Give the backbone structure.
Amino acid sequence: MPQINAMIRVLTSFFLILFTFAATPNLLKANEEHAAADTISPKKFNTGDLIFDHIRDSYEWHIATIGHTHLSIPLPVMVYSQHSGFHFFMSGKLHDVNGNYDGFKVASEGKYERKLVEVMPDGTVLRPWDFSITKNVTSLFVSLGLILSIFLSVAKRYRENFARAPKGIQSWIEPIVVFICDDIAKPSIGKEKYQRYLPFLLTVFFFIFINNLMGLVPFFPGGANLTGNISITLVLALFTFVITSFSGSRSYWVHMVNDPGIPLWLKLPIPLMPIVEIMGVFLKPFVLTIRLFANITAGHIVALGFYSLIFIFAEKSIFAGYGISVLSIAFTVFMGLLELLVAFIQAYVFTLLSALYIGLALEQHSGHE
């Protein structure tokens, strides 16, 4: 186990060093081009661009903008084109002439907006198979490394001396694990079967919770809107859907189609209730997906909206900008503290609903009949 912990730390350090060194030449070049463009045609502050640049995924990790200098970390771009095969390069290359490198560029408009496209010699725009390590993917790797490092170290302490009082990170993790076990898994699934699903519930909770917290950190490697990405929340919800479907008891599926407590006229000749019940099976993962995505994204948008007030008022008057900054920063700090609570609540709600759905699928109805 010490070897595994050491390997995780080495791999995490390796990726950070790789991105840093690979980014250096491209970073300087991109900064010069951004600065030149801003000098030629300076743009007014756009709140929408600030907000959506933060909450959406990207091919580079923007750190900060100092004057006309944009500090960002280019990330690996890996695409497969049906015409020219595989291509590997750093996203900083996309800041070359006209934002085009080797026929590839990030579309600025249209149905492929902010996606990498291939521009053919005749001007046709095609979407290649994209396997790039984007900002959200990088954040995912960092959070997985953090989660593995935390829990492998905690597990090691338990194996060495289970009876010893917890300390350090162990004293923070143990109450949460006990809370999920005693207040979520047991009441929702049952004391006889909860242990089978407890690893999944713990994984989901800590994955969402830690990534929610990382999204509140305003500097690298935090700040990515991972749990506010609908693709991530959809995958988490699909895990719950698959586990629920395969764990469902016979009576769960039978009662869904022919519930004995439902009047016959709601089943025949048009099976209204079976249709509603079957729709409910697919609505559950949809609800899980949208709830987490919407709440996390809304929190980021509101906080950035208050932050943007400083620049909006500063364009009208420098004194107005300084005046509103006090109120704006106060609300931004308040939203940050509120988001700490939301980070826990959203992880709790997703885990609780997953446990409830699993518990309903496992329930035996013979006793009720």
Observations:
- Strands lie at 60-66, 69-74, 76-81, 85-90, 104-106, 116-119, 125-126, 129-130.
- DSSP finds nine helices and eight strands in the chain.
